[in-house]
Every structure is written in structure tokens, then in C-alpha cells.
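Hi team,

Filling in the usual template for the complex we talked about on Friday. All components are listed, including any nucleic acid strands or ligand strings, so the model treats them as one assembly.

SUBMITTER: L.P.
PURPOSE: interface mapping
COMPONENTS: two
RESIDUES: 553
SEQUENCES:
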Amino acid sequence: MRPAWSVIFFTSVSGVGYGLTFWLAAAVLAGSSEVDRTLALVALGIGLFLISAGLLSSTLHLHHPERAWRAFSQWRSSWLSREGVAAILAYAPLLWLALAVWRGAAGPLVALLVMLMSVITVLCTAMIYASLRPIRAWCHYLVPPIYLGFALASGAFWLLLLLAPAAQAPSWLPAVSVLALAAVWFAKWRYWRELDQDKSPSTPATATALTGAVTPLDPPHTEENYLLHEMAYSVARRHSNQLRRIAVVSGLLLPLLSLGGLLLPAVASGLVLGVGAAALTLGILIERWLFFAEATHTVTLYYGTQP
Amino acid sequence: MTQLPAKPAPVKLGLVIDLDTCVGCHACAVSCKEWNTGGWVAPLSDQNPYGPNQSGTWLNRVHSYEWSGDDDSASRTVHFPRSCLHCEDAPCVTVCPTGASFKRGEDGIVLVDEDKCIGCGLCAWACPYGAREMDLDQGVMKKCTLCVDRIYNEELAEHERVPACVAACPTSARHFGDLGDPESAVSKLVAERGGADLMPEQGCKPTNKYLPPRSRKAAAPRMGAAAASTSTSVGFLGWLDQLLSD
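RESULT (copied from the run log):
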């Protein structure tokens, strides 16, 4: 599948945003007095900015963005519609939390609502892809947990970066960051392994209802069409092992090493943690690029490439 | 509404495509393009049609394959027209976020309301068969309409009220009819020839059926014998053969 930057940016960056708001709400729930009001507002503002930038970016790949409002109507059947509805609904508790923090009166109810809506929205984003059966790499049970895992892990690191240099981070936050990161990369490792081992039930023979060996002789057209442009992207598969290693170094090893920055004084700590959070975000972008670029669609069977 | 009709349509209009008689002439694809580019909706656009890297929206594509079947010793060419199968469980319909994609309750035809389409392309991803192509000029998704503007068109003579691809096929490899009625000509053809679904494992329950090529095992030796016998012709041809061989 062709990796469109607008969609890669949308899923990655809005994920970081919802992860950040999730853990900030968790910190409020655990004991709001711990977190400084200004820092909490800055974290919420960054979260809202990342979420909104992601959502706006997702409309860039539409051919008719002026009709995007129609996408809120089909939530009964469409995960894309559900994602849009959830994203809009999530703004209510997010803005409520910002107001409550500002007034110094953030209660457990609003914090719980923010956590719930952040998780629901990220899962809806994942389900847009996980519900597409012709794309074996997306229609996989680990796709929703991995989307959620990367959102929570990156959100925890970003919150740590904002709070730790000011000695405001809740004591449990570093441990949660490590746990989330380890869990999501374990899931991703299993996902890659299963993807490499499993075979698609669809073959050139089932695609043509012919039993026996089917090999393409003459293509229907000599130039690339929309289908091949969109769904027969092959660059990543040639370099997938290298890119997977780069994603693991950037998205797992560097962020873990950067946690050593917690032992340093404020400014140095901020710098080291910042490098870690940036590396993690870059790792997620590479992982998301691979998620698209490595995926193959059953339509390629007609053109002679195995999904 | 992009939910599927609550009850499966009693009438299931669709195509039956005979892979035995299709000669791969692309007349169906060209005729489809011609009808749908000149119809009442916007044209099926082409990009850079006279320059390098031209592309365009087509609703029907004809592939040609080399096929070695189970019972035939030699491999053979099979031409394979590919278009929308008007599935009963059409995933392209349910994924649509705007309600532009829909399946008609009365005859099962899957259509796109182009005024509601936002051009997100999700339906094309959801279709296992590659039946939908984005019109890059209009920015909306295009697909086979089963020539809904022909088959019910009372301005046309009755024998012309079939999809353009069916009307154009010179070998009658394409058949149009109601696959929901077991007594219809197309349903009988499917039963008689063992018509099959494409990628049944994808769970879309396609309406269109494909008839497999007939076995040629019995006919092949005779054709071989006829070819060999030319060297032992008698009479005038034998004399000519001998004269020219010297």
C-alpha cells in the first residue's frame, strides 16, 4: 500500500497527542496536587495541538475536504466515520479538563472521561485499517493493541519530558513509560513474525476461480493506473529488514537509554529526555511508514504479485 | 446509508462471464469506457492521455493469463475481464464514512452517489477485487453501475437494455440477468457450467459468476492428427505438396 504522508502523520501524531492527554489525566486522577498547574496546561495544550494537527492532516488526502462533514454520518457501519465522531466527542472532556485544571478544580470524573475518549479514539483509528480484509497485514488482531501501545508509550515519554526536568513527574511515570514501550515492541515483534510466517488464503487461482497454476501473460494496461499506484507499492519490501532494525533502534533502544537523563540535573535531563522522545516519535513514524508500505492488497494477485 | 440492505435483495442483477469463450478483445472494456464517459454523469477522466505516463479511470479491465489446469496436459491462455461483482456483503459499502456508497435493496446494484463522495479512497482499499478506481479529475470514486442508466432505460429498444459490455461482446462471453432467480437463464447457465465466485474466502458473496474454461482433453488429439495428416495428402494437394517439397 502506498504510504501517504498525510495519513502516516495523522495516525502517529494524533496517537502521541492522545497518549499525552491520557497520562496527564491519569496524573490528575492519581493526585492532582502533584502536578504544577502551568505545566499541566502546557502538556494539555501540546496534546490538543498534536491531536488537531493530526486530524487536519488526515483531511489532506481527501479529494473533497469541503465535504468532510459528511463523514460523521455513517458511524453505524464505518470505522472511519466512528473515528471522526470519537475525535470530535473527545474534544469535550479535553477542553473541560483544561478548564478544570486552570481553575484548580480537576476532579476524577473529567480525568476518567479524557482517558476513556483518548483510548476509544486511538482504537477507532486502528480499526479503520484492521477492518480491511483484503490487506492481510492490516486485518490482524495485533493492529489495534499496537496502535494503542505506541500512543500510550509515546505519550508517557512526552509527559516525562515535560514534567521530569521540573521535578514534577509522578513517581510511577518512568516505570509506566518503560512498561508501555516494552509491551508494544513485544507485540510489534510478534506481529512481524506472524506476518512473515503466515500466508494469505487468497491466491492467483482463487482470484480467478481457476484451479491450477495461473501466471500473468498480458496486463490489461501498459501504464500504471490508480490501483497499482495506490496498492502495489513495493519499495519497503525490498528494504524491510533494515527499516525494521532502524525503527527498533530509534523507537526502543534510544528512548530507553534516554531515561538515564532522569539522574541528571534539570537542563541536561531535559535535553537527554528530549532526544529520547524525539527518537521515539521518529521510530513510530518509521514503524507507521512500514505498516503502510509493507502491506499488500489482494488486487495485486491479478497483476502477478503475491500478497 | 452505507449499511447494507436489511434483507438480501430478492432480485440480484449481475453478470456471468464465460472464461471459455472470452477472446480477450477488450471490446467490453472499451464499450464500458465509451458509455460511461458519455453518460449523464461526469466523464470518466484520463490523465495526460496523449503524453508519457498516461492513466485513466476504467471500470472494466481485461487480464490475460497462462493457465495450466488440473485435467489439461498443456497450458493455455485464459482471458479474464475484471469489474465490480456487486457483492451481497459489499465491504466497499459499509466502510464508506459519508453514505456515498450504497447497495440498492431492489436489485442489489452497488452504486456511488458522486455528490456525497469525499474521495477518501477507503472503499477501493476495502474491495478485494480492485473494482473501484478514483477519478482524479472529479476527485470521486467511480465503479461499474451495471449500466443502471441503460438496463431500465425505456428510451432504448428492449434488446439494448443490457450493460454496454454485454452488448459489445462479440463472442457472447458476457451474460446479464437476475442471479437471485434460480429459473433465470443466467442462473441455469451457472448451474450447468459450474459457475464460481472469485475469492470466496474474502467473504464478500459476489453476485457475478465466472464460468471455467471447458476441458479440451478430448478434442486435442484429433486436432493433432489433423495437423499431421497434411503431409500425406492425396490427389491434387498431395501432388502440390510433393512438388513444393522437392
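MY TAKE: The radius of gyration of chain A is 21 Å. Chain A touches chain B through 58 residues (CB under 8 Å).

Thanks, L.
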